[in-house]
Write a structure and sequence with these properties.
By secondary structure, this protein is of the alpha+beta class. It has 3 helices and 2 strands. The model has no long low-confidence stretch (mean pLDDT 86).
Length: 89
């Protein structure tokens, strides 16, 4: 749980950015063990948080470990998010 430390720091300093390699580094709400990768992604995209991403909240992914471990490729990267090249004319 890092929120307590974040609040304590913000009492004396103006925090301009939060950076981490996992969502839980940004806010403890993302550390709920009952959340699947899809639910965690949906929560991160919720309207309550949409203004924070790239505007003070930043994720720099660590490809060697994280909550994706034990998940399928489809859980972490849903097929509907795959890039498809535009048809050439």
């Amino acid at each position: 749980a890092k929120d307590g430390r974040r609040y304590a720091i913000s009492e004396n300093y103006c925090v301009i950015a939060l950076v981490g390699d996992q969502l839980g580094d940004i806010a403890d709400i993302f550390n709920d063990k009952s959340l699947s990768p899809a639910a965690r992604r949906d929560l991160a995209a919720a309207p309550a948080f949409e203004g924070a991403w790239d505007n003070g909240w930043f994720i720099l992914p660590n490809p060697t470990y994280g909550p994706f471990e034990g998940s399928s490729m489809e859980d972490v990267f849903p097929p509907e998010t795959y890039w498809a090249p535009a048809a050439e004319k």
